[in-house]
Task: structure prediction
Amino acid sequence: MIKKIILAIILSLSLFSDETLQQIKTDLDQAEKDYNISKKMFNPWYGGPLITASGNVMPPKYVNIYSLLTVADTYSVNTAQRKRESIPNVINVSPLLDIGVGIVNRLDTHVTFLGLYTQQSGQHYFNIGDTTLNFDVGLLYEKVYTPALKLILAETFPTGNYENFETDKAYVSSTGSGSYATKFGLATSKVVWWWLTHPMQFRYTFNFQFFSDVNVKGINSYGGGLGTDGTVSPGFIFATSLGYEFSVTQKFVLALDVAYEYHDDTTFIGNPGIIALGVPAPIGSSSRSTISLAPALEYVFNPSSVVVGGVWFSVYGTSGTPNFIAGFLSYSYGF
Result:
């Protein structure tokens, strides 16, 4: 009897030993896999896609200088019959400079300066655009399970050219709206590690922009002709976009923006003036909306120095909206 008990114990220990060794081997194999993955992991660096803002704010005393050059070709206009009607190509070259600084925790500000060169049918014109003062208010810091979230407040000042255009340069002289524009919105962003060796970041933003009335004379940014004199009430703009960034490596990032923009009716009260043959000049516009895409490639030298290049083009528009394709290149440096 005792021999049977001893034999049973020995067999049990043997089976237990085999199971233990197998479990140890499995654990070691998994540890090796985890180690190999960890060697490939990195802290992701992002410079941001073209359109969608980050949900983060700059820390106090941090300064960021952002420059952007966009070259766009507007080649057609959408009609009420959902067709594209060709127009003489409008070439826009737009340099932009944005200077930002962190003020205190959860608050930063930046000023955006814009220039615009336009060429069409042999005519060309260059002038400064409207100037924007922005404030970002941090509402949430990004953590493991929560995204970064900020409130966006901005005021645009009418420093661009918007009225009394020369007749022969009527289609190229607009560089501003003539209106004080107030914008507010929200931006959020979150880095996710669904693929451990290729982290990615999602961004989402939406904003509303409202415009003051504009007194206009002559040919202007809203239309008009000889003798135009009255008041334009620009319609509000609602804009929303989704941004996505995929880390190929720490320095190389693929990015994409999907953007939607809605413009409400722009109305006019006053003397519309006349164009050729005494016909009343058109001024104002009906509501319209556009969807566009902006794929890009980011090269991140380090978290404070980033180059982003890509294209931006319209894919859908209601009646009266232009169809365009643009190339852009930006550089951002912070200290």
User: Anything to note?
Assistant: Helices lie at 2-40.
